């Protein structure tokens, strides 16, 4: 009886076990390997979109409820015309192996930026300024002069003459009260260039801190044998130390009278270079000690004039009613030596 009872118990246990297995199969639906079919979806080539992880299924799948059994073969999975539509790939990490939908490929990288344009070439250098135009010859009938404070060679004087300047005035006495040692050679060079002695003058820049007579005497000594016709006394502010004019106008007027007397004593033909501005500031409007001498006056109109036919812009001062010459421009002809230019009235 014990053996029968144990056999019955074993049979009952077997039946119970079979019932549990059957129940689990019915409740959990069909299982293939380790994948539950309802958890999977088929992705057919005709579908417009599929989710990553879906099974890539054959279109003639005989059991769509079991996608695993419908999966592509490895060859079809890797075929770009079949499995490639939905980026299918063969997954060997699943059990069983199958063809599944993969994520879409990343977008292609953006094209590289175009190379920067080559740097612009530097702008061309500006053209050189045109050469100065040659000074046109002066009108006939007028005498035009250059005055210089630098040494002038024969070629320099010839350049002046080619521009129509036939009179030269050379600095012979410096503002510091000493001889300009270049004057003698410049005057001789002018003669060699074709200038007449009567067309050459000198100017003296006096130092009010030294004796008038000694400066006139020193000028005559320094110009011994040099060709010149007239000595102009330069009346303007003097920057040299110890040589400035007095603050008393009458003292300055007396000093000018001494210069004139010393020159006349040596039989020098004297003249004065002065503007109304400097005459009034240094000599005073009442000083007329030089009114009997030729006046060479400066005045630069703006815009500048070139080769005037007459003396312009003169107003009477110092007893003069008519000037002898007018220095009208401080930019002379295009020659190696700079010069101011004047016209004789």
Main sheet specs: 8 strands, mixed, barrel
- List low-confidence stretches: 1-10, 12-38
- Spell the H/E element sequence: HEEEEHHEEEHEHEHEHEHEEE
N-to-C terminal Cα separation, in Å? Answer: 171 Å
What is the percentage of strand-forming residues?
A: 15-25%
| Global mean pLDDT | 83
Strands of the largest sheet, in order across it?
7-8-9-10-11-12-13-14
Radius of gyration: 59 Å
Number of helices: 8
Shape label: rod-shaped
How many DSSP-defined strands? 14
Secondary structural class: alpha/beta
- Helix proportion range: 25-40%
Produce the secondary structure layout.
Blueprint lengths: L1 H26 L3 E2 L2 E2 L5 E2 L11 E2 L10 H4 L3 H5 L9 E4 L6 E4 L42 E5 L5 H9 L4 E7 L9 H10 L7 E5 L7 H11 L8 E4 L14 H17 L4 E4 L2 H8 L11 E4 L26 E5 L10 E5 L1
Parallel strand pairs: 3-4, 7-8, 8-9, 9-10, 10-11, 11-12, 12-13
Antiparallel strand pairs: 1-2, 5-6, 7-14, 13-14
């Amino acid at each position: 009886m014990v053996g029968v009872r144990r056999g019955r118990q074993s049979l009952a246990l077997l039946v119970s076990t079979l019932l549990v297995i059957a129940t689990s199969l019915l409740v959990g639906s069909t299982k293939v390997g380790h994948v539950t079919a309802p958890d999977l979806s088929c992705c057919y080539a005709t579908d417009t979109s599929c989710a990553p992880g879906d099974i890539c299924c054959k279109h003639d799948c005989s059991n769509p409820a079991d996608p695993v059994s419908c999966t592509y073969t490895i060859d079809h999975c890797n075929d770009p015309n079949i499995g490639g539509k939905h980026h299918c790939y063969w997954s060997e990490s699943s059990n069983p192996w199958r063809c599944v939908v993969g994520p879409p490929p990343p977008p292609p990288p953006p094209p590289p930026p175009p190379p920067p344009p080559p740097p612009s070439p530097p702008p061309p250098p500006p053209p050189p300024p045109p050469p100065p135009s040659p000074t046109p010859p002066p009108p006939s009938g007028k005498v035009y002069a250059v005055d210089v404070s630098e040494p002038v060679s024969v070629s320099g004087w010839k350049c002046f003459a080619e521009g129509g300047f036939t009179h030269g005035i050379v600095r012979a006495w410096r503002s510091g009260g000493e001889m300009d040692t270049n004057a003698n050679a410049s005057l001789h060079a002018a003669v060699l260039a074709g200038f007449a002695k009567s067309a050459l003058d000198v100017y003296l820049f006096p130092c009010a801190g030294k004796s008038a007579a000694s400066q006139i005497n020193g000028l005559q000594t320094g110009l011994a044998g040099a060709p010149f016709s007239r000595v102009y006394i330069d009346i303007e502010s003097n920057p040299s130390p110890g040589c400035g004019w007095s603050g008393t106008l009458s003292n300055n007027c007396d000093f000018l009278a001494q210069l004139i007397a010393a020159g006349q004593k040596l039989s020098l033909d004297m003249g004065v270079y002065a503007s109304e501005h400097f005459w009034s500031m240094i000599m005073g409007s009442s000083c007329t000690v030089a009114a009997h001498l030729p006046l060479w006056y400066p005045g630069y109109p703006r815009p500048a004039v070139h080769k005037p036919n007459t003396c312009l812009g003169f107003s009477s001062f110092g007893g003069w009613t008519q000037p002898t010459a007018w220095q009208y421009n401080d930019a002379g002809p295009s020659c190696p030596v700079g010069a101011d230019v004047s016209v004789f009235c």
